[in-house]
Design a protein that fits this description.
The protein is of the alpha/beta class. The protein has 3 domains: 11-43 and 556-652, Sandwich (Immunoglobulin-like); 50-66 and 220-549, Glycosidases (TIM Barrel), CATH 3.20.20.80; 81-217, Jelly Rolls, CATH 2.60.120.260. Strands 1, 2, 25, 26, 27, 28, 29, 30, 31 and 32 form a 10-stranded mixed beta sheet that branches. The protein starts with a helix and ends with a strand. The model is unreliable at 1-12 and 553-558 (pLDDT under 50). It holds the Pfam family ASD1_dom. It is an enzyme of class 3 (hydrolase).
């Protein structure tokens, strides 16, 4: 028995699989329910979430900062900033101008020198991330680092303005200190605006040094200053995820090794975190976004805190010394791999180390979290394949388990669900007795229906599976976007019954990607869509939610019906999931293997009238509906609409 199998005995939940079997009778479809559990239990980590900074998911998304390029560090330092009244415009020749200065000895290299030529005319305007969303009656915290230069600039007025430059909120900062100092002020909005701007106006004449210009809503998740966007985290919380996989995805690898994700650069003071170009900025020519950077305001400390808030296990993924093989495929030489391995060891110490006895445990405590994060999983590489990956994985595995034998390592089978790379990865990894092998599949809906039994044939004594990235891709719209329609979500539900049925093989799974901004997305479909003011959940989101909060285990498909059943010993409840992918309504009689007294029966239905139906802003109509079901003549009969997911909950004696 390997380390992983020993450990996960402690992680089993109270959900036990119950066998189900469809049959036909004169009255219709019968679901025969074996009330004796199979002994297979569902992992608490069965359904989780996968976060990657793609589709503006972090800056301009989950991370609630509203100012783009707040510290002037982008390749073009004034990206996102405009000077509407500059000395170069004839109507205001002496207004002022901004000059970028660089300090190569700092991680935050650049700062701005503002030169003002005439009083109250020079302005700097920030466009935000495809605009700044402003909510009526909401309060916003404006802050910046300032230092007086020559002569005297007395105040900086911060204003939120709408698309027509009409003021929505304003506040003024009085400059009191000649040296660098952080200034903060709050302002309250009078109107709602989707694509506003931040406008700075200067009083006085002379020069002023400026850095870290920031604007945050006060209404962040848990009210944390400089925190995460409330509505987006709430949607994650409502999923009740078992784990959070972060920070990617291909973000981990980078197009080159220099552009890879390095966790140590993402912790500590946000003003000292060194930004990099987001590897998705120009990856897709039809969705190019050259102004897409990573400031790492959402860094590893924030990821761990988010997982803790959600009650989920953290699952960080680290570079294995290989850049993305779809790009450069750049490799670290084996003799130069030690720093990458040390990063993994140090991360485990950062998450779990004793503050009094370890360097990185002490640093975690200094950041405000003396208690360990109870890290149990770590991933080595993302979608790597081939002998180079296996050679590096062996080094990581030996080093990690030599020092931390209790840690469960996620290895990878490459970017595909089958084929040469996939077969080679599984064959070679099995020789190493791995704990979890990550599989990814982005396929048409029909593939998910045809592969609901995919894991029936897997070796029950072999490595466990992490279905780390999957989504059904259903056609394309006028904008080239593959749709989050009901057809895709329903096929995912059918497939997920197969994950549950094989819960002795599949220990973890997550839909991908998680977030997408409607005005700056690179990849679709996605689980949650948002704009500057709000967000909506897709049909796939509600499928994930219903499975996550009703963990179970399906067994059989017949006549385009898929089903699962589980017994919750603590709640004295049997949960049955039925997925009908047919275009015909069904009545299914549930027949227990031996008599039971059903105290109460509730039914939750998720369905849509057409396969290509979708949710959108203001019309989130594909949502679960719950009702109580009457039991007549001691018969349990469920109405299963065409193309629907139905959850039956039976309180039993």
């Amino acid at each position: 028995m390997n380390l992983f199998k020993r450990k996960l005995i402690l992680l089993f939940s109270c959900f036990c699989i119950v066998s189900v079997l469809f049959s036909q009778s004169a009255s219709g479809t019968v679901l025969q329910l074996d009330m004796n559990t199979t002994g297979i239990k569902i992992q608490p980590t069965m359904y989780g979430i996968f976060f990657e900074d793609i589709n503006q998911a972090a800056d301009g998304g989950l991370y609630a900062e509203l100012v783009k390029n707040r510290s002037f560090e982008f390749t073009e330092p004034l990206t996102g900033w405009k000077q509407p009244n500059t000395r170069y415009q004839s109507e205001n020749p002496d207004s002022g101008y901004a000059t970028v200065f660089n300090n190569p000895n700092k991680t935050n290299h650049n700062y701005l020198r503002v030169t003002v030529g005439n009083d109250k005319n020079y302005q700097l305007v920030n466009e935000g991330f495809r605009g700044i969303g402003i909510q009526k009656e909401a309060s916003y915290d404006f802050s910046c680092l300032l230092a007086k230069g020559e002569v005297n600039i007395r105040t900086v007025k911060a204003e939120l303005v709408d698309e027509n430059n009409k003021v929505v909120a304003s506040a003024e900062v009085k400059i009191t200190n000649p040296g660098w100092q952080k200034y903060s002020v709050a302002m309250k909005a009078s109107r709602t605006v989707e694509k506003g701007k931040l406008r700075l106006t200067f009083t006085g004449k002379g020069t002023l040094l400026m850095d870290m210009v920031s604007l945050f809503p006060q209404d962040t998740w848990k009210g944390r200053k400089g925190g995460l966007r409330q509505d987006l985290v709430q949607k994650l919380y409502d999923l009740k995820p078992g784990f959070v996989r972060f920070p990617g995805g291909c973000i981990v690898e980078g197009r080159t090794l220099a552009n890879r994700y390095q966790w140590k650069k993402t912790i500590g003071d946000v003003a000292d975190r060194e930004l990099i170009i987001n590897r998705w900025n120009t990856e897709f020519s039809h969705r190019s976004s050259p102004d897409y950077f990573q400031t790492f305001g959402l860094g590893f400390m924030e990821y761990f805190q988010l997982a803790e808030d959600l009650g989920a296990a953290p699952l960080p993924i680290l570079s294995c010394g290989m850049a993305c093989q779809f790009n450069t495929g750049e490799l670290v030489r084996m003799e130069d791999l030690d720093p990458y391995v040390q990063d993994a060891l140090d991360l485990i110490e950062f998450a779990n180390g004793d503050p009094a006895k370890t360097k990185w445990g002490k640093f975690r405590a200094e950041l405000g979290h003396p208690q360990p994060f109870n890290l149990k999983f770590i991933g080595v590489g993302n979608e790597q394949w081939g002998p180079d990956y296996l050679e590096r994985y062996r080094i990581f595995e030996h080093a990690i388990h030599s020092r931390y034998p209790e840690i469960n390592i996620v290895s990878g089978s490459g970017p595909y669900s089958d084929g040469e790379y996939f077969d080679y990865g599984w064959k070679e990894l099995k020789k190493l007795d791995p704990q979890l092998i990550d599989e990814h599949y982005y396929k048409p809906p029909q593939w998910f229906l045809e592969n609901a039994a995919r894991y029936d044939r897997y070796d029950r004594s072999g490595p466990k599976v992490f279905a780390g990235e999957y989504a059904a891709h259903s056609g394309s719209g006028d904008d080239g976007r593959k749709r989050n329609n009901w057809e895709a979500a329903l096929s995912e539900a059918a497939f997920m019954t197969g994950l549950e049925r094989n819960a002795d093989v599949v220990y973890m799974s997550s839909y991908a990607p998680l977030f997408a901004h409607t005005d700056n997305w690179q990849w679709a479909p996605d689980l949650i869509w948002f704009n500057n003011l709000g967000s909506y959940a897709t049909p796939s989101y509600y499928v994930q939610q219903l499975f996550s909060v009703n963990k179970g285990s399906p067994l059989t498909e017949k006549q385009r019906l898929y089903a699962s059943a589980v017994k919750d010993a603590l709640k004295k409840e049997v949960i049955v999931k039925i997925v009908n992918v047919d275009g015909t309504d069904r009545e299914v009689e549930v027949v227990p293997s031996h008599p039971v007294a059903v105290k109460k029966l509730s039914e939750t239905v998720l369905t849509a009238s057409k396969p290509d139906d979708t949710n959108t802003f203001g019309r989130e109509h594909i949502i679960p509906a719950e009702k109580e079901v009457l039991i007549k003549n001691r018969k349990i009969v469920a109405s299963v609409p065409a193309r629907s997911l139905v959850i039956l909950k039976m309180k039993i004696r």
